[in-house]
Design a protein that fits this description.
The chain has about 300 residues and is mostly helical. It is about 60% helix and about 5% strand.
């Protein structure tokens, strides 16, 4: 490979990486665009709050302009009045189109974990046996905390505690709890054992994010578990050109989710962040929507 060609490949890599960051920043701004909420310490209550965003983003975040899909699911299931067709339909639509690219490119809390992992501290590698078992925890959280417990344990008619949001979700504490308490002295006075517990969960997740890439996405996020079910057949797919691949495994060493890229590039754990594609020395890895390549070839023939 000539020096000029390597420079062009390196430039393309940098553009791809910066494009991912731009998408993440745009997504954060779009779903948390109510800046007055942060200044005034109050939650946005406009009409858009009736609609779900496709990412994990706390309803109580002062800047949030839409509802969190996990919170909406728990409320709908716990009400026992109607099935959450709208919420599930929205999530399934994004799952079918993007799969876990939603996690890698659009999720604000995923973006925060990415930034924290850049802090120059010694990194940790979870032993393979523990890692493989621990990855199933997020599916348990999805089934138990999001679906079964709200459906089976309603405190009283009309009162549906959002169990995942209340006891587990660190994004809610970071995006909603802390900004609201910073702006409202009364809320700080009311903080008790539950807030202490949620702060502990948040601190542990943020600290782990500096040592392990995206620990919440790997092990706990129910939304990531839901989207992973669509990864293998979503329209947006990763591809490896086997003829161009030289087996260097740089892609696998760069993967934040430790996917075995050369064996199973569209694994349920792949968040389509593009890092494998960026480091591939031969350009063997690509990402595209289903049918795109065929359509382009057809246009060239025509």
């Amino acid at each position: 490979m000539s020096g000029m060609h390597r420079d062009r490949v390196g430039e393309k890599r940098r553009k791809k990486i910066s494009a991912q960051r731009i998408l993440q920043v745009i997504a954060v701004v779009l779903v948390n665009g109510y800046m007055a909420g942060f200044r005034e310490g109050r939650i946005f209550a406009g009409r858009s709050k009736a609609f779900c965003v496709p990412v994990l983003n706390c309803y109580s975040c002062p800047g949030a302009i839409g509802a969190c899909p996990i919170g909406a699911l728990q409320t709908s299931i716990g009400s026992r009045r109607h099935f959450p067709f709208y919420v599930l339909g929205t999530l399934m639509l994004f799952g079918v189109i993007l799969g876990r690219a939603v996690c890698g490119l659009l999720c604000p809390f995923g973006f925060i974990q990415d930034l924290l992992h850049k802090i120059p501290v010694p990194k940790c590698k979870v032993p393979i046996r523990i890692d493989r078992v621990a990855r199933y925890i997020k599916y348990m959280v999805l089934v138990l905390a999001v679906f079964l417990i709200p459906a089976l344990f309603v405190a009283e008619p009309g009162m549906i505690p959002p169990y995942f949001c209340k006891y587990i979700c660190p994004a809610g504490t970071l995006e909603g709890g802390l900004p609201l308490m910073a702006a409202n002295p009364l809320l700080r006075e009311l903080a008790g054992a539950l807030f202490t517990w949620k702060m502990l969960v948040l601190v542990l997740v943020l600290a782990a994010s500096m040592l392990i890439h995206r620990p919440f996405c790997r092990y706990l996020c129910p939304l990531g578990a839901f989207y992973s079910l669509f990864n293998r057949f979503s329209f947006y797919q990763m591809h490896i050109n086997r003829q161009a691949c030289i087996g260097c495994r740089k892609c696998e060493r760069s993967c934040p989710m430790e996917v075995e890229v050369t064996r199973d590039i569209n694994s349920p754990e792949c968040i389509r962040c593009g890092k494998c594609r960026a480091v591939c020395p031969t350009g063997a890895i690509s990402a595209e929507f289903a049918g795109t390549r065929r359509a382009l070839k057809h246009l060239d023939i025509e």
